[in-house]
Amino acid sequence: MQAINNARTIVMAWWTRASASLRIGAGCAALLLTCVICAALAGIVSGHSGATSAPMAVATPTHAAAATHAVRKATPVPTLAPTATADPNATAPIYAAVIQTDTGTLAADFGSVHNDCGVQSAATCYADLQRVATDTQSFVDDLNAMPAPPCLTTVDGNLRVALADYEQAAQEGMDGITESNADLLNASAADFSAGTAALGVATTALKSAQCN
Known about the structure:
Helix content is 70%, strand content 2%. By secondary structure, the chain is an all-alpha fold.
């Protein structure tokens, strides 16, 4: 029994040490998602003004040629009423609302990874990472179903890079747990950090986006 307890203590010590960087990476991602990007998205969801209107050019009235040196009075051209022009960014609030919902889900997932991995059992951490992988793929599916408006294409591109990094990080973390491989857990932490860096670029672009 003592030998079993000693082995368990050694495994838990290894797990706590090996998963530390993974917890930090997930925690930073959760913080960025909840405190920065969601706030910026809220502004787009509520602040977009919709389609803009612009007057159409009106032709200048012309006079017909005079017959037998008699000048006919020109027929006036009616003034056309201004018509609404299509706003290419009209879908920005819908797109932002989709991102806002999905980032909230991922933030909760990352928070669970940060809180559970190393504190709870490896099995709990594995389940948290599996949820990250599933919700990340769902996020990508939602982006594919709602193309980004022109004002948010830079945001969309960097967000997709971040999601790819996060999905890979989750898979590496799960493999690291299954194989008791510290190198895979370190790789997972590195990809979490890479994803958060890409997310930071997306957040910067989001703050400067002109969608109104």
